[in-house]
Amino acid sequence: MAKPAKVQFVCQNCGAVAPRWAGKCVACGEWNTLMEEADVAAAPGSGLARTSKGRTVELQTLTKGSERIVRLPTGMAELDRVTGGGIVPGSALLIGGEPGIGKSTLLLQLAAAFASAGRRTIYFSGEEAAEQVRLRAARLGLSAAPLALASETNLANILATMGEGKRPDLVVVDSVQTLWADALDAAPGTVSQVRAATQSLVRFAKAHGTALVLVGHVTKDGQIAGPKLIEHMVDTVLYFEGDRGHAFRILRAAKNRFGATDEIGVFEMVAEGLREVANPSELFLGDRLASTPGSAVFAGMEGTRPILVEIQALVVPSGLGTPRRAVVGWDANRLSMLLAVIDARCGVSFGQHDVYLNVAGGLKIVEPAADLAAAAALLSSISNVALPADRVYFGEISLSGAVRPAGHALARLKEARKLGFAQAFLPAAGDLDAGGLKLELSRLAHVKGLAEALAL
Asked: What is the pTM of this model?
């Protein structure tokens, strides 16, 4: 008679195991995340069972020659940029994003491009019926692509289908939270089911050289649902970001074993699906009103790509005891620090004013070099004087008021010159050979120099 499985409670946020239920997880502090799951014994031969006997593996050296990795082009230049030049055979990618942001549309376009190039591609949909996927394909004009489609959530059936016939070049699973394994007595989406499904699919991809793309749900905080263990098991983690009020979408790499982790790809949502945006700077600056006070153009970097974006500031007298500070697309703590620096080093006080700061277009900026552009917008708004339309700003401001150098200065200036800007405010420190750019450079060593240049 088989021994009954031991019952345990697993946190769906961090994966911690508790012997009994509790309202709060002692490991991560989250409430109502413990769910009952059966502790199923490991199968013999898996390496986890107590009776499993290992075998001696061949040890290799670092000097042994290895074959060059041949990437598979996706047919989408923006996606190739984010992945580092294409998808590596045998790699596993995890893509997350808010519901309705366009994950399924992007992956359907990717799968159709692979299939149209003569590569065997399988698309498993766990959330939609096959007819729903066909309707989306018809709307996107992809019905003629020789794509293999199935609506399935059983892990065993998916693995059997992948192993039958010719080896698939690409497998898309939408989404991993809908899969379930027969051997586990747990609901789909729980930590045990998601871990088992991810391990099995990644093991198949590594063994057969199949590129695997998994879709992951996200929490209200914007993180991929489930413990971080899932992100550690895959090779690449991509986040699909965007605002429902804007047409553009940003694909950002949070982890990439085969490329840079700070690259982004920009897409625009149109009626025919997702369209690539080759020049994001023109998109973010397209509706700019340069004659309005409080508008400054920041020359930023996203990975190796320079992007020019408008930073808008509105400073108005406050009728509240504690003035408001509202930020969209930037760090609120960074704004508070910047206001304190301007007050202490330039003598311009915002203590009796409400301050609103916005990054136009819905782009989220985390680069410290945006300090100088934000300071210029704030000083322009409080003085009610519009900045010249042909200026760009970049540089990090320290607590002492010093303007610290920013990386990739030449690439930022080249992008600004290409879009017709004539003057740039940048840090005084750092060597820069920009003689052939025909761009007027104003080097600033202190934020007070910015206030003096704006005649404040």
From this structure: 0.78
